[in-house]
């Protein structure tokens, strides 16, 4: 068997494998998030839960002419500061998240429970 036939068989099998993979994995709802490390997993976990806001957080947002969409933007693009977070609690873990939102630096503290996430503190710099 010459070299050209070997490449033809190889790439033919490779193409069939890609097509099968697309149909089996593509329709199953499997997702591959970019950089799916601890930061992305934590943010995705908080984003998928029902969010509540403490009175102090709402007041801080109002005083700085921001709304809850700023928090959603931060949860999409922010960074979790694990060194400042308390992840050793049994019931609800407390995470500190920071990042730029609307040309400002936002830092929030979120209590992440099993069914809900509560924004406790909003610090705007």
Commentary on this structure:
The protein is α+β, with helices and mostly antiparallel strands. Helix content is 42%, strand content 26%. The chain has 4 helices and 5 strands; from the N terminus they run H-H-E-H-H-E-E-E-E. Strands 1-5-4-3-2 form a 5-stranded mixed sheet. The protein starts with a helix and ends with a strand.
How is this fold's topology laid out?
Elements: H1 3-26, H2 38-47, E1 50-53, H3 55-63, H4 68-77, E2 79-80, E3 93-101, E4 104-112, E5 116-124
Parallel strand pairs: 1-5
Antiparallel strand pairs: 2-3, 3-4, 4-5
Give a quick precis of the structure.
The chain has helices at 3-26, 38-47, 55-63, 68-77, and strands spanning 50-53, 79-80, 93-101, 104-112, 116-124. It has 125 residues and is α+β, with helices and mostly antiparallel strands.
Question: What is the ordering of alpha helices and beta strands?
Answer: HHEHHEEEE
The major sheet is characterized as: 5 strands, mixed
**Which regions are unreliable across 5 or more consecutive residues at pLDDT < 50?**
none
**DSSP helical segment count:** 4
Shape summary = elongated
Assign a percent range to the helix content.
40-55%
Number of strands: 5
Order of strands, widest sheet: 1-5-4-3-2
- Span from first to last CA? 69 Å
Mean pLDDT: 87
Strand content: 25-35%
Report Rg: 22 Å
Class inferred from helices and paired strands: alpha+beta
